[in-house]
Write a structure and sequence with these properties.
The complex is a heterodimer of chains A (421) and B (894). Chain A contains eleven helices and 28 strands. Chain B contains 31 helices and 34 strands. In chain B, a hairpin with a 2-residue loop joins strand 31 and strand 32. In chain B, helix 3 runs parallel beside helix 15, helix 8 packs antiparallel against helix 11 and helix 17 crosses helix 19. The chains are: A alpha/beta (421), B alpha/beta (894). Chains A and B meet through strand 26 and helix 11 of A and strand 30 and helix 28 of B.
Amino acid sequence: MKGARPRRERLVVVGNGMAGMRTVEELLLRAPDRYDITVFGAEAQPGYNRILLSSVLAGQSTLGDIVTHPKHWHEARGIVLRTGDPVVAIDRGARTVRSAAGVCLGYDRLLLATGSKPIALPVPGLTLPGVCAFRDIADVEAMIGAAHRHRRAVVIGGGLLGLEAALGLRRRGMAVTIVHLMPILMERQLDATAAGLLQRDLARRGVEFLTNAQTEEIVGTGRAEGVRLADGREIAGDLVVMAIGTRPNIDLARAAGLDINRGILVGDDLCTSDPAIHAVGECVEHNGQIFGLVAPLWEQARICAARLAGDVDAAYLPPPVFTSLKITGIDVFSAGALASADDADNLVTLCDVAGGVYKKLILRGDRLVCCVLYGDVGDGPWYVELIQSQRSIAPWRDHLIFGRAAAEAGLAARAPQMLAA
Amino acid sequence: MSSGGGGDEGGRMIRTTCPYCGVGCGLQVAPDGSVAGDPEHPANFGRLCSKGAALGETLATDGRLIHPQIDGRRATWDEALGRIAARFADTIAEHGPGAVALYVSGQFLTEDYYVANKLMKGFVGTANIDTNSRLCMASSVAGHIRAFGEDIVPGCYDDIETADLVVLVGSNAAWCHPVLYQRLAAAREARGTRVVVIDPRRTASCDIADLHLALRPGSDVALFAGLLVHLAESGACDPQWTQDCTTGFPEALAAAREAAPSIADAAATAELPIPDVAQFYDWFGATERTVTLYSQGVNQSSAGTDKVNAIINCHLATGRIGRPGMGPLSLTGQPNAMGGREVGGLATQLAAHMGFAEPADLDRVRRFWGAPRLASRPGLQAVELFDAVLDGRVRALWILGTNPADSMPRADRVRAALALCPFVAVSDCWPNDTTRFANVVLPAAGWGEKDGTVTNSERRISRQRAFRPAPGEARPDWWMLTEVARRMGWGAAFAYRSAADIFREHAALSAFENAGPVRRLFDIGALAEISDAQYDAMTPVQWPLPCGADRETSGTRLFGDGRGFPTRDGRARFVATPFRPPADLPDTHWPLVLNTGRVRDQWHTMTRTGRVPRLMAHRSEPLLEIHPEDAAALTLGDGGLARIESRHGGAVMRVHFLADQRRGDVFAPMHWTDHFTSAGPVGRLVGAATDPVSGQPELKATPVRVAPVRACWRGFLVRRSEVPLAGAVHWARVPLAGGHAYDLAGWEPLPSVLSEAWILALLGAPPDAELITYADPGGGAFRYARVVEGRLDACIFLACDGAFLPDRNRLGEMLGASVEGRARLDLVAGLATARADPGPIVCACFAVGLDTLRRAIVDGRLTSLADIATALRAGTNCGSCRPELSELLAAGRT
């Protein structure tokens, strides 16, 4: 190109999931005219909020409700959107990408937001009809379809996703058994007490549980009929949902020769080993950490967009992660470094089994490092704030677990005594 | 004659007399049990103290003894009374009458006393009947008899209001006789009465004192000997009166000169500043209208009788006896100590102010009662009595209306005696530490459930009237005694149908053959013939009241003209009182001296007042009061725990720093028992040296040592019912409207006691109980709440040093309350509500707390008692908190 008017830079986004689209959104706020943007998406649908798939499964939302970036959104902003057409190769030397449909497109900057893939258990029967993951709209449609036609479901995995899948199917009338490898549910976010309350409350809603249960095989002839466990027990199920976690989707990056480990390696600038290629979302690995929760994604999107907009100082600092279960009437909130807690840490607990409330705070010195909340989660965000700010909680310690209002009231009540003394 | 009953015209309001101290206030009780002062009663003219005002709250009958019991099993009255009669008869047959004894009470009505005394001295044939008045008034009785020939209080309450100088000796009237104190305070306000308080402690009574002499405990005799010398040398004596009306002055003066030859000597012995002593002596010498009020600080001493006489000597020397505004005035501790003395309920008295020393008295009483086996010599006095039980001389004991397992000195020894005694019967209203030792327990009718009379400190006989039925099978003590007498074969002499029958006989005995040569002043012959209706309608009257006397004037004052002392020569007697220090003196092993006494809102061993939450709010546990410098030397902390030990026992108590406390002295209240605190009764610590004349034990001067106990946590348990507590825990129980609170502290680190079993036991919870728990081991905080059927049943809060502990009363208020949702967590949050904490209750009547008062004084710029009254009503009812209010006002000004 020749002429006075410089060509706009070309930004190609691989993946129209939540991280990729949020980055685009943030970028348009900062530098609306800087890039010609093309977005490739593997799924046929336009951008939607994956977190709300549970709500769709549970019948509380429709697919339409959860769409965040419909086609006209892209059109209005001059963005080219190619759904159902995943990028299959990157030529870093030529700075081009090629899609499954054969489209070849040059880029100045490339953003990888390929997300993650559900982990599939390496067991026989994996490919039987009636076996699915709980990751995308297609999975949800399959599960809803199965719920119409079948009676029993087995959900493998007692983590966040598995529980939401189980409750959704239960609400759709299926008898559901959760098969979980670990002794407690949501072991990464909860301790035994909270997990016990959760299991009790889910059981009250008719979900059955098998913990310490290793799946050996998905049984069935022509279609899933159940699972067989390592101890020989068989659990009947016409639908088998595998929700044992995800792993970063790094096939493309690997093929392109980018540095990878578990995920695509990025620095605080969210650049990969190729300065022209950024990466955000569940596909990345930052400081040894990979991501499955939404808050870090939003922060990555913000920082990455700033970088793309020319801010060379923008740096990603991982926010504290928190988890909340999206099951109506069952409130679970977990934030901070539960797994890293050790004997030197102080535990503060509040437990009302009959009232369905349990809280645990982990203190390291005078700092809050973790909270596990069950049944009364309203102060979760405040705890996240305290975990993030690393502010001393010493003045509030006696009331901390009862929440912000109680802590502040406690401080206020103490003030006159301090004055008097 | 009125229709009687002491009722109002509608017959609904019942007039009766307060069951607490010896002031003997008149009350009006409404049909709903609410209590008001009787404006027409001459003791109080409508006033009430905090305890009296809360009487209506003591009437709950839950927990009362309502059936006789034998060996812990319910029995019929016939079985129980039969058992006592049989065991008494067997014991007498085998070991003689001296092997049985009665231990009775200043809570007795005169009629109860009369029957008990007649049964023992007249028919069992032993004078082994003593009363807890031995712990209270025996020294005054002995002192009166030595000085006047008879146990006579010469003056009356009006004298307090017409005196120009009132000397309080060993009396914290502000707390112990609050209504008289209020009368004195009002008189002082009106006419500038000068007030001197002589007390080792700076008590609430010092609030109105022009001079406080914080004398060394037990040095009273030296101080008053010095006064007698001063009076003699300064020309303040009345030589004519002394010559005409007394004997023994030279000997008494000589002994006084021996004890305290000069003001400086008196001051040195009493460890007082010379100018203060001189000031007191000058005022006493110069003030004709001088009243000396004295109480337990005088009586409860191994030199109690000498103290009484040293005081009376000064009044005799100045001729200030029995005239308006002057005289010695002994304040009795109990509601009917005086009535018991009239009857002769002490082992050293015979009956109706007659004694064992006079053969004519013995003959007269023997004939009057028709009692050939009449005891002819004094019986065992309280301390001796329990010693005799311990060594097996007394083998059958009936205790009525008193709790010696707590109230006697060397309480553990008394308990051992009770445990060893072959037969113990106890009559009481509630189970207490003494009933635990009883073979037979008899349910007694209590205040408001029985009829009879009481006599107050100014010789005024008032009616106590029943205004409600006794619960269950509870019966009056006189009835039980009468029934036992009948079963022992003396029915004819005990044919009483009513309290009125007994009273008439008592009055008749007082007048029986009372013509001389020495007339007994205790003569209420005018009441010997009254009808039942007249008895019902009887209004308060002072004795003497012989036949034909004018009831309005006869008993007001005695000896005002210097004549009529009931001695052979008609003269009063000076008594030489050489000074003796207390029997046990501090030394290097036992360096401190323990004083004991009352607190404002409690009564005796708290069987009644300990049930009223607002009376427990003033002091929720017994505090060991100590001077801050003594405490510092012992490394004690204010509000911390300390172990106090004497030769007789030990206890862990909470320490309260008090600059008003003398160096070297500590103070602990007498009320608390094993039912209320792990510290138990202070009687465990107290020695039992007795006055050689009166036999009264020295309850206020026990050498002790004190050492800190480092509590590492504190907390409280709140629950709907009582629970036994044990282990390495200091606890004090406080009643609440809906249950009980236990303040806790421990010296074992929390995890060691924090076993699940311990917590569950305290909560009264089975292993699968519904609990809400909070634990912050690193911060040292543990909290547990037990919910039963959606309501708070119990909770425990434990906190290591520095950790937050909420207001237990707020949790207490929630006992039994429905708790749902967020409120369940608020339980263990224990947060102060929007309403500010009132703090420790100062005004018990209107439940006004210390913190509320402090805030109001500062924020509301309150400067006077009247301001406080307007703002908070505090101090406007009973007024007994007014000294504390004044202190708060003074503190607010600085």
